[in-house]
Amino acid sequence: MTRVAFGFLWFVVFLVAAMIIFGVVVAPDTSAHGDAVQSYDAGYAAGYEIGRRYGKVILLGALTLSIAGTVLGWLPGTRRKK
After folding, report:
1. Which of 51, 48, 45 is nearest to 30 (CA)?
2. Which residues cross the membrane (predicted)?
3. pLDDT digits (tens, 9 = 90+) for 52-82
4. Does a structural domain hold residue 81?
5. How many other C-beta atoms can be found within 10 angstroms of the C-beta atom of residue 50?
6. CA distance linking residue 49 with residue 28, whole number of Å
């Protein structure tokens, strides 16, 4: 049971990390040089587009990594006890 819990924890970690990386690297510069409302709207639109375009890839990648790492015992907390 703890292996499953750690596997889910690693899934969340991979998912959040990938979303942050994609948001920072793929998103264009959305600052409107001082106008907070325009910056917010541009950032929201860019984030929505990234989620629409890459959301499935991010989700499936995080799921694949967490399942493979848990089953094979590569991730911390997922090794079988001897």
Report:
1. 45
2. 58-77
3. 999 999 999 999 999 999 999 999 988 887 7
4. no
5. 18
6. 11
Is 33 contained in some domain? yes
Residue 65's identity, in one-letter code, is L
Q: Terminal CA-to-CA distance of the chain, rounded, Å?
A: 15
pTM equals 0.80
**CA-based nearest residue to 50, from 18, 77, 79:** 18
- Answer yes or no: is pLDDT of 30 > 70: no
Domain with 65, as residue range(s), is 2-72
Count up the domains in the chain and report the number.
1
> What would the 3-class secondary structure string for 13-71 be?
HHHHHHHHHHHHHCCCCCCCCCCHHHHHHHHHHHHHHHHHHHHHHHHHHHHHHHHHHHH
- Of the two residues 11 and 24, the one the predictor is more confident about is 11
